[in-house]
Q: What sequence folds into this?
């Protein structure tokens, strides 16, 4: 996915069950994705956010 802050960086998230760290992805009936846990970029733009039902929720 592309970073939602607008910096244009590509974010790769591991979703394979045996990967560490990894993210769980779920999709609701409307086709909107959610991720768990939050995404926190430790470098670059340093964005920290949740994806919930297709929306970006920024952490302070």
A:
């Amino acid at each position: 996915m592309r970073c939602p802050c607008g910096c244009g960086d590509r974010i790769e998230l591991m979703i394979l069950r045996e990967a560490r760290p990894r993210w769980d992805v779920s999709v609701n009936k409307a086709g909107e994705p959610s991720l768990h846990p939050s995404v926190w970029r430790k470098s670059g733009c340093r964005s920290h956010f949740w994806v919930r039902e297709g929306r970006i929720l920024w952490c302070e």
About this structure: The chain has a mean pLDDT of 96.
